[in-house]
Design goal:
The chain is an alpha+beta fold and about 140 residues long. The protein has five helices and seven strands. β2 and β3 form a beta hairpin.
């Protein structure tokens, strides 16, 4: 597989503060890593010249972008309709609750259109990911 065959794009709502954005991307990266298959990772362990082990990283590009909340919701909805894409989303409930039980209760109590999304990560074939995220701005502070 070629480095450019697959792509990972993180999307942050443009109204999210930088310290929250880092938290959102961290949680979403763990989720994508957990639920993707093994192909997402490059070499598991990389030894330096001294023999010290370093954990490998994704073998594919991971780009972080930002968009207005409405475009974020549309991107999440579009990506979830494509069965070839893996989508992790981050509703505000994930920030506002303390425990997993509270989170489950909060999300269960709302219709999808009532969730406020702060971010998402989409993984899949570069072409499919670009169709959804290709025009998004790179995230910067």
């Amino acid at each position: 597989m070629n480095y450019e065959d697959k792509k990972i794009v993180g999307i942050i709502a443009s109204n999210v503060e930088p310290e929250v954005a880092l938290n959102v991307i961290g949680h979403l990266a763990i989720s994508i890593g957990k639920y993707s298959n093994e192909e997402i990772m490059g070499k598991s362990i990389i030894n330096d010249k001294s023999g010290v082990e370093h954990l490998g990283i994704s073998q594919f590009p991971f780009i972080i972008t930002k968009v207005k909340s409405g475009k974020l919701r549309n991107a999440i909805d579009s990506a979830k309709k494509n069965p070839k894409l893996l989508v992790a989303d981050y509703p505000r409930d994930m920030l506002d609750t303390r425990t997993d039980d509270e989170l489950v209760k909060s999300i269960h109590s709302k219709e999808n259109d009532k969730l406020e999304y702060l971010g998402a990560v989409i993984y899949g074939d570069t072409k499919d990911v670009n169709e959804i995220t290709g025009k998004f701005q790179l995230w910067k502070v």
